[in-house]
Model the fold of this input.
Amino acid sequence: MINVGVIGVGMIGQDHIRRLSQVLSGARVAAVSDVDSDRARSVAAGLPGGGAGAGAGAGVAVHDTGEALIADPAVDAVLVTSWGPTHEAYVLAAIDAGKPVFCEKPLASTQEACSRIVDAEVATGRRLVQVGFMRRYDAQYRAMKEVVAGGSIGAPLLMHAAHRNPSVPPHFTSDMIINDSAVHDIDVARWMFDEEIASVTVFKPRQNRKAAPGLNDPLLLLLRMTSGVLVDVEASLNASFGYDIRGEVVCEDGTVELSESAGAVVKRTGGYGARVPADWRERFARAFDTEFQEWLDTITAGLEPTGPSCWDGYAATVTCDTGLAALRSGASEPVVLRDRPDLYKTAATS
Ligand code: NAP
Done:
């Protein structure tokens, strides 16, 4: 049984706590921490054994800081689900403590911070960190990658992707379309083709009338992979009708695409239809479950994590920064990465 400490018990932190304590096997939530200590106490009180004070053996400890949680000997592994700019300090502290750490995306909010994490992990000589790019665990994406990698329909030439969100809050900015939404498509492209993104161009189509003033919604990103494969990503944040994720890879001798994610198709007079997922939690619920179960199984076996690495987190952040530069310049901008350390050289992307 792995005792997990959770730093940041907001929306996704609470969803992962539910997953760890009610859906998956082999883990229990042993400690929580949040800048809002009332929220941390209330989340702990709702868990089996909750309500105990910091350091308590059998209960759920509530720590004042993430650093105290990481230092707690009762915590075997750390889950970081706090606000992005806080990730660096917690991931570095977990590496320093020699504890496996699962960090929700982004690994860190600047490429310099990601690079510092890469250096710290490389210095330990082993992988301790996994980054939360859950699409790699989605059954449909995995099936698509298997076909592409198997080569049965020839070499890949193009990928068409769409990321359609029903709506976003008024504070959502054009930069967030790249950093918070398209970042998942950026990770998928690197993982799907096992290669880096060489350059990014960003186009601004006609603005959706529902977009807040100043929000460039939708955006169209064009990612050129190092092999020359081109990936276009439509990011629509006010699609209204639901959460719709599309993907199609065009190869020399055929195509492979994601199927509809809804369960049952209903046919009635004059037409047929099915449910569109309401949001990312519904669309990727099983992917999140698989992502965490595989992470738990790996660390329970005393092995290094095999999922998205610090390098993947670093490359995603650099590519997003390049996308922001392309959004402002209107030109194709090159993605400039540091040399990949040997620790991450087992595959072009881990
Ligand atoms: P959220 O609801 O705002 O939750 C973040 C929580 O962390 C809040 O309770 C926040 O408290 C707390 N927090 C802020 N600073 C902290 C600190 N220094 N120490 C401990 N706790 C702190 O945000 P969220 O939507 O859950 O997102 C959390 C992370 O998950 C983000 O990095 C986000 O990008 C990522 N995420 C990933 C996915 C995915 O698809 N993989 C989806 C959603 C979110 P306050 O509210 O008081 O600030």
In short: Confidence is low (pLDDT under 50) at residues 52-57. The longest strand covers residues 156-164.
